[in-house]
Design a protein that fits this description.
Elements lengths: L12 E3 L3 E4 L2 H12 L4 H15 L9 E8 L4 E7 L9 H6 L19 H15 L6 H4 L1 H9 L1 E2 L2 H9 L15 H7 L12 E2 L2 H13 L2 H4 L2 H12 L6 H6 L3 E3 L2 E5 L2 E5 L6 H11 L12 H21 L10 H4 L2 H8 L19 E8 L5 E9 L45 E5 L2 E8 L4 H15 L4 H6 L3 E4 L8 E5 L4 H9 L4 E4 L9 E6 L6 E5 L6 E4 L1
Parallel strand pairs: 15-16
Antiparallel strand pairs: 1-18, 2-10, 2-19, 3-4, 3-11, 4-7, 5-6, 8-9, 9-12, 10-11, 12-13, 13-17, 14-15, 17-18
Length: 551
């Protein structure tokens, strides 16, 4: 292998004690401050996720969901937390069809048909930290940084500027044209109707008030207090379906993580309704190939991982939904036999044609934390599409997700809309253990891209011995459909050689070459822990606005 492929533009961050990586430097700083002041990984993750919900509002917020993996070093227990919201009790296929819809709208009040779970996730994790991990920070202190940036302002990132402008197209475009929502216009556009430019300071005073109330009164104010009533009232005034009872009924759940063996390691992810088993399935397929005979970055490498992705996604799309509504044979899908069977279908001379159109959209943040005691968090938070539903209940500052627009209005579809149901969810944070010790905390944003980028990180770090930052920066691929396109393509970053691209095209891949570093590939991050010294090696993605920092 050419050693230059293991080089990176940024150095890997190294620290002896704690480490945090997020896709926004202000969030990383908020989490690091907690670690430096003696806080644990969960407390740092709450501070960081609350902060990034303010300073990266196009990607996530308190109107969205989150999923967690939490590792307690003292007890060596790994827990998963599902804090995704369920559809409202009035959400039904018949309702949308009666309104003339053949699919759920992607924007507006009717797209916001699932209860936001993010705040409940923060508090559930906080309670675990307090009761089981000796947490010392108070709830209100952990939200202090988020409140500060909402109230006093923060500089807008180039990412926010780009995605704001991308969503201000003509009124003929149902997906874009977000300025049609009055609260969106009030908060995210300047008085002249233009977006904030990168470096300009933006304030969110309504959101600051909502966060202050949550900091003072806990998540109950969001789900059972006046804030819940305000959200529901304005939603219903605009044709939305969620009720106050839906908010009161919300609960987040501790669940058992899924795992597989990969080489000599054990990899963990979150169970359905998360697509975590698809990420594991890709690695389960790769287990049956000796990558020492396949050069990283070669046509064979990209072909193999793309084909493994297609096969894993076939199983995922056949089964993934809320398991309380439809059983999912997880043990069978992640068995050694299933991995072998799928691996046997891969032909290195030609690609498999997939009829289903895969949409890789999904705007999300992943963050990872490891503290001085070895406790760790891998966590993902999202509002689904950039700016979610676009709908912000009046005077709350809370941008509601459109995750429920992923439900199908076909009664026979595995992910069909039903009341009180969790939808198929792309969010899936990951961890990897070596000899029963935590070795790698990793993840990414990016919808369909999450399992693919996770596979890139694992193969490059584990199989090819890449430094963490180099593994994140290395050229990436994304199999799926570009917005507005009618077929799937294999999107490759421009740094991939012409010879590799030509070979992939000859094998039948519809190749689309993108910029050298494009955030279409997601914002990945990782923290590796040296098994002998305990030193943490952290990386953050230059495709985002983040930083890996430690102490």
């Amino acid at each position: 292998m050419n050693q230059s492929s293991k080089m990176s533009y940024r150095p890997t961050t190294m620290a002896p004690n704690g480490m945090i990586t997020t896709p926004h430097y202000l969030a990383s700083q908020a989490g690091l401050k907690v670690l430096q002041e003696g806080g644990n990984a969960v407390e740092a993750a709450i501070a960081a996720s609350a902060t990034i919900s303010v300073v990266y509002p196009h990607m996530n917020g308190i109107g969205g969901d989150n999923f967690w993996l939490v590792y307690h070093a003292k007890t060596q227990e790994l827990k998963a937390l599902n804090s995704s919201g369920r559809s409202g009790q009035q959400a039904s296929i018949s309702f949308y069809r009666s309104q003339g819809y053949t699919k759920i709208p992607t924007r507006g009040a009717m797209a916001a048909n699932t209860v936001p779970g993010a705040v409940a996730g923060w508090e559930k994790a906080f309670q675990y930290s307090q009761n089981q991990m000796g947490g010392t920070f108070s709830w209100d202190v952990l939200l202090r940084s988020a409140i500060h940036y909402a109230k006093d302002g923060f500089p807008v990132t180039p990412s926010q500027e780009y995605w704001t402008n991308a969503n201000l197209d003509s009124a003929d475009d149902e997906f874009r044209h977000l300025q049609r929502f009055s609260e969106f216009q009030k908060i995210f556009l300047k008085s002249n109707g233009l977006s904030y430019q990168a470096g300009e300071q933006m304030n969110q005073p309504d959101l600051a008030l909502s966060l202050e109330a949550i900091a003072s009164k806990g998540s109950s104010y969001f789900y059972r207090g006046e804030l819940a009533k305000s959200i529901v009232q304005d939603l219903q005034n605009h044709g939305g379906l969620l009720t106050y009872q839906d908010f009161k009924d919300h609960h987040s759940d501790w669940v058992d993580p899924l795992s597989i063996r990969y080489r000599g390691y054990r990899v963990y992810n979150t169970p359905p309704n998360s697509q975590g088993f698809a990420s594991l399935s890709i690695l389960n397929i790769l287990n049956h190939f000796d990558l020492s005979y396949i050069e990283e970055g070669s046509a064979d490498y990209y072909h193999l991982l793309t084909e493994a992705t297609k096969l894993a996604f076939y199983d995922r799309d056949h089964y993934l939904t809320d398991p309380e509504f439809s059983p999912i044979p997880i043990d069978e899908l992640l068995s050694v036999q299933r991995g072998m069977e799928l691996a046997s279908r891969i032909d290195f001379t030609r690609g498999t044609h997939v009829q289903k159109q895969l949409d890789p959209k999904g705007d999300t943040i992943w963050l990872g934390v490891v503290d001085q005691e070895g406790n760790a968090v891998s966590m993902i938070q999202s509002i689904y599409h950039e700016f979610g539903s676009g709908f912000i209940p009046k005077n709350t500052g809370i941008l509601l997700q459109n995750r429920g627009s992923f439900f199908s209005l076909d009664e026979n579809h595995v992910n069909s809309l039903q009341p009180k149901k969790r939808t198929y969810h792309t969010l899936n944070p990951a961890m990897l253990f070596k000899n029963d010790k935590l070795y790698l905390v990793y993840g990414t944003m990016g919808g369909e891209g999450q399992p693919q980028t996770q596979a890139a990180l694992v193969t490059r770090i584990i199989d090819y011995d890449f430094p963490v930052q180099a593994a994140i920066e290395a050229p990436r691929w994304l199999y799926g459909r570009t917005w507005g396109a009618s077929s799937n393509s294999l999107k490759l970053e421009g740094r991939i050689s012409d010879d590799v691209i030509s070979t992939l095209q000859r094998r039948g891949h519809e190749v689309e070459v993108l910029d050298d570093f494009t955030d279409i590939m997601g914002h990945a991050g990782a923290i590796k822990i040296d098994e002998n010294t305990g030193v943490k090696f952290g990386g953050a993605d230059p495709r985002g606005d983040g930083a890996a920092i430690g102490y």
